């Protein structure tokens, strides 16, 4: 089994609607029932981000995201799947549930 | 000695995909499979001239490739204990999907939607078709190094993203099959109009492999109209192969072909598939309409009997599914038969196909029929320049040289 990160892509400060939240709940419950759920969460927008660089002597704090772009990650699922075809099917259901584009990437082997 | 050379060439065409597919299934590693298949063929090149061609060359190659793979993995396992575990795990093939054909697994892996379309075609031609990187690069008019990188990247993605090595489960099949059909059709076309200065005009190994794989997909999804349509299209096209290139290596157009040389069995099979699709009463997709057009052509005992109005009606139907310039170009050929070359010429005038050899070939023919020799000659020149197929170049050159001066 491999764990996959399904990132939810977003391009505005609009929150998920009630309908979207309800659909996401249904999807989450199905993932849990099927044993594919690892973790999921929503994120605050990029304006809430702070970049820290502590590689030098004193950490440097920078207001804002590390890369300015129209689209950003607004939430994610971590799912467990035997191979990419299953992960893609889950991601398609997730995209439909949250009504947004998603990106799928496998975790590297432990 | 040349007998052994011929045997090697033939076995390479027939067995390459099977060797790659078998090693890939057993060890779950496409890179390893391809390298070991290449090593097995290299060993054959050394040994067969000395020892003779083995009675079952395919089995010999598969066994050799498998043994080389095990040797390689053992050597690596000695360096890395974890690798040994991986070998034991991956050596047990995961039963996946609904049909057990190693080459079909390979096709679905190479045609996975997580890969870019151009990578799917390149991988399928390399791993299933056994074409060299140079041949694929030439077929798709890119540099060999760029094509090599494309294939390497695609294989790396298969590994990193965990694209499964297998036929998708039944629920995923319909969506996946569209991409597979597109790739198989591209391979068929590359075989039917092979490119490259040294290439045979028609690569029967490629058309044959495309048909064989499409038959397998059809057996898997008998109710899928587009699979049946593509199979019928390929069969009706393949049926004309023997009549398509003259003894002197020149392309013979549909109108001039010796219809007695067409393969009646393939035509009957193709017509039966087209009739079955008509009887199904569903709205046909692109491949089914193209198959129906070919059925009308192959139905005519003589070119003069061709039902051009039926063909035009089918092209109109095709335009609703696929309004591409190439469809418009082919439709214009039927228009020329019904309404004359002048009407057809006007319809192709603005098509954005300046880099497509067939566009200039069609224009050249229409201009010739209108007596515009100078314009026709220029169009033939451009078509000859853009065509990568030797037989087509020979045909176009003769037609050009027959023009009145």
From TrEMBL, chain B:
Residues 176-276 form the DUF6596 domain. Pfam families: DUF6596 (PF20239), Sigma70_r2 (PF04542), Sigma70_r4_2 (PF08281). Coiled coil: none annotated. InterPro entries: DUF6596, RNA_pol_sigma70_r2, RNA_pol_sigma70_r4_t2, RNA_pol_sigma_r2, RNA_pol_sigma_r3/r4-like, WH-like_DNA-bd_sf. Residues 108-158 form the RNA polymerase sigma factor 70 region 4 type domain. It comes from the Bacteria. Residues 18-79 form the RNA polymerase sigma-70 region domain. The keyword Magnesium does not apply. Keywords: Sigma factor, Transcription, Transcription regulation. Belongs to the sigma-70 factor family. ECF subfamily. This is RNA polymerase subunit sigma-24. It comes from Actinoplanes ianthinogenes. The lineage of its organism: Bacteria, Bacillati, Actinomycetota, Actinomycetes, Micromonosporales.
């Amino acid at each position: 089994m491999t764990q996959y990160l399904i990132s939810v892509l977003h391009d505005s400060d609009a929150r998920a609607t009630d309908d979207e939240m309800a659909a996401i709940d249904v999807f989450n419950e199905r993932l849990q029932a099927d044993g594919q759920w690892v973790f999921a969460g929503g994120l605050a927008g990029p304006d809430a981000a702070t970049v820290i660089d502590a590689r030098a002597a004193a950490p440097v704090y920078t207001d804002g995201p590390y890369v300015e772009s129209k689209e950003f990650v607004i939430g994610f699922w971590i799912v467990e799947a035997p191979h990419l075809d299953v992960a893609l099917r889950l991601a398609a259901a997730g995209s439909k549930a949250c009504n947004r584009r998603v990106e799928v990437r496998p975790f590297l082997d432990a | 000695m040349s007998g052994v050379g011929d045997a090697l060439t033939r076995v390479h065409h027939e067995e390459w995909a099977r060797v790659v597919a078998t090693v890939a299934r057993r060890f779950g590693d496409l890179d390893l499979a391809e390298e070991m298949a290449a090593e097995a063929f290299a060993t054959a090149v050394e040994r067969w001239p000395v020892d003779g061609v083995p009675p079952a060359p395919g089995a010999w190659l598969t066994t050799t490739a498998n043994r080389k793979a095990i040797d390689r993995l053992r050597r690596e396992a000695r360096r890395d204990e974890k690798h040994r575990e991986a070998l034991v795990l991956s050596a047990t093939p995961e039963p996946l999907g609904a049909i057990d054909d190693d080459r079909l697994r390979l096709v679905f892996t190479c045609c996975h939607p997580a890969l870019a379309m151009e990578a799917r075609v390149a991988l399928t031609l390399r791993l299933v078709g056994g074409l060299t990187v140079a041949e694929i690069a030439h077929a798709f008019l890119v540099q060999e190094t760029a094509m090599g990188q494309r294939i390497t990247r695609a294989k790396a993605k298969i590994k990193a993203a965990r694209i499964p090595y297998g036929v998708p489960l039944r629920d995923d099949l319909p969506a996946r099959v569209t991409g597979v059909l597109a790739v198989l059709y591209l391979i068929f076309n590359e075989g039917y109009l092979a490119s490259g200065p040294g290439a045979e005009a028609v690569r029967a190994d490629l058309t044959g492999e495309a048909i064989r794989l499409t038959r397998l997909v059809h057996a898997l999804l008998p109710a899928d109209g587009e699979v049946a349509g593509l199979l019928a299209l390929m069969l009706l096209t393949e049926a004309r192969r023997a009549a398509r290139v003259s003894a002197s290596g020149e392309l013979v157009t549909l109108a001039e072909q010796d219809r007695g040389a067409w393969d009646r069995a393939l035509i009957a099979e193709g017509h039966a598939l087209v009739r079955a699709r008509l009887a199904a009463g569903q709205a046909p997709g692109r491949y089914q309409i193209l198959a129906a057009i070919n059925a009308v052509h192959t139905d005519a005992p003589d070119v003069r009997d061709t039902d051009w109005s039926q063909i035009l009606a089918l092209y109109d139907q095709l335009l609703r599914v696929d309004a591409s310039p190439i469809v418009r170009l082919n439709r214009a050929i039927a228009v020329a038969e019904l309404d004359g070359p002048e009407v057809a010429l006007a319809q192709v005038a603005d098509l954005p196909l300046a880099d497509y050899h067939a566009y200039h070939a069609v224009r050249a023919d229409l201009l010739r029929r209108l007596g515009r020799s100078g314009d026709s000659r220029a169009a033939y020149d451009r078509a000859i320049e853009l065509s990568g197929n030797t037989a087509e170049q020979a045909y176009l050159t003769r037609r050009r040289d027959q023009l009145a001066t």
